[in-house]
Amino acid sequence: MAQSLLDSMPGASTGTVVVTDHLNFWGGKRVKPRQESKAEAVFEPATGRVLCQMFPCGAEEVDEAIRSAHAAYLKWSTLAGMERARVMLEAARIIRERREKIAKLEVINNGKSITEALVDIDVAWQCIEYYAGLAGTLSGQHIQLPGGAFAYTRREPLGVCVGIGAWNYPFQIAAWKSAPALACGNAMVFKPSPMTPVTAVILAEIYKEAGMPDGLFCVVQGGAETGTLLCHHPTVAKVSFTGSVPTGKKVMEMSSKGVKQVTLELGGKSPLIIFKDCELENAVKGALMANFLTQGQVCCNGTRVFVQREIMPQFLEEVVKRTKVIPVGDPLLDGTRMGALISKPHLEKVLGFVTQAKKEGAKVLCGGDAFVPSDPKLKEGYFMSPCVLVCIVFYIQSFSPGTENCRDNMTCVKEEIFGPVMSVLPFDTEEEVIRRANNTTFGLASGVFTRDISRAHRVAANLEAGTCFINNYNISPVEVPFGGYKMSGFGRENGQVTIEYYSQLKTVVVEMGDVESLF
Length: 519
Ligand SMILES: NC(=O)C1=CN([C@@H]2O[C@H](COP(=O)(O)OP(=O)(O)OC[C@H]3O[C@@H](n4cnc5c(N)ncnc54)[C@H](O)[C@@H]3O)[C@@H](O)[C@H]2O)C=CC1
Fold this sequence. Notes:
Structural class: alpha/beta
Bound molecules: 1,4-dihydronicotinamide adenine dinucleotide
Helix content: 25-40%
Radius of gyration: 24 Å
Number of strands: 20
């Protein structure tokens, strides 16, 4: 079925696709939903048209999926790492082969530009390839003990892991969670966001086609209720969650009842610090990359852009000039660089942040309005013009060094907007900017632009965040760990370290002599 949907992709254009295939997957096949009366419409963000119906899974369906995953786990976990690697490499190959079709479907469901979606799909297969490479390296330790006795450790899987995803990177999140889980010998039941239910099931089919046992990677559709069922299920060993802080707290609380392991990838309000000795052209490009990918709906975005006061005028001139010419429109066109936001309520929320920022004294230098592309089929789409905000008080007094006139307490500077809105703030000294950058409950990412190598590393060391980019922003190679400090979560995705989050260590102690009993 997915084959036929994917096969229709090459000719598909915005506003033409309707998805009628079942979107649940367990036992090695797509499964018809049982709660048809609970259908929720899923929209194509670029047109506002209904793309498909999402039927949330109830308790019976969740249980069935988990049982199917557990049966597959019993087989998969007995394979050698190299055997698992071979199957995973085949899955990566199939994704690579179908990258254009999968990316197109992702664009239609998510609204991001095709240029970005292709990168997302590439990152997905690279992640699977990377963990396939690590699967054969999993090993324990041998420890010599007195009298010829010894111990050894075995790195073992956890069992059935649950993945719960957000809507901003639907296919990529499913890959980031499943690849390390499967490499370690686990099974996974994945629940995509109810707003982007369409592509995770394609991954499930590809895993099956590559040779994984039926049930090894299952997809259950639904929202909070289905997520709750997954977190409470007694067979589940671990929950890996990507989403907002409030939901992350709930997931952690529910998982704690069953003493399940948890990885939380939550939101952020990351600082990007631009010193006056930077390469300005690169710093401007970095600020755009830090704010406008996926219509600004990226958890690690550097939305608080601190610019050293002396270069503020040049920085603003350049960043505004470039922001104004970002091509917004049909996300399936190659020339488009910004597509539609995920939903109408989310668009309204983001526009509301801009209105609030104005009330609190920020000045809009460009964008921040709902945008209607000239193509009539896009007139109901959820588009907005990318926005650069600066505090009005600062703007007038920008040449008065030392004046504390920026507004770190403005709502747009404190809260995660999750839209294409950059807040620019002036600073004077390194010590001051570190203090202000760290003055947040989040700690996902950070960035610094400077030509001073000592300062770059000093600033990186002093920022309270899981990632610091030096002289770039928002690059996430799969070899590099990704995750948060503070309320941005814990645990990591990508990189070697993630093996630790999907496996457990067993110690085996071997006596070679007689038992010395105290009794
Ligand atoms: N740190 C990271 O890697 C990322 C973090 N995010 C964060 O995600 C947020 C936006 O994504 P949303 O999908 O709106 O977040 P959300 O927290 O509303 O939903 C995330 C997922 O949790 C599920 N869910 C909702 N209530 C649940 C419950 N009670 N139990 C179990 N699952 C439940 C949703 O159905 C969805 O699949 C932003 O705050 C963003 O910063 C997004 C992408 C990446």
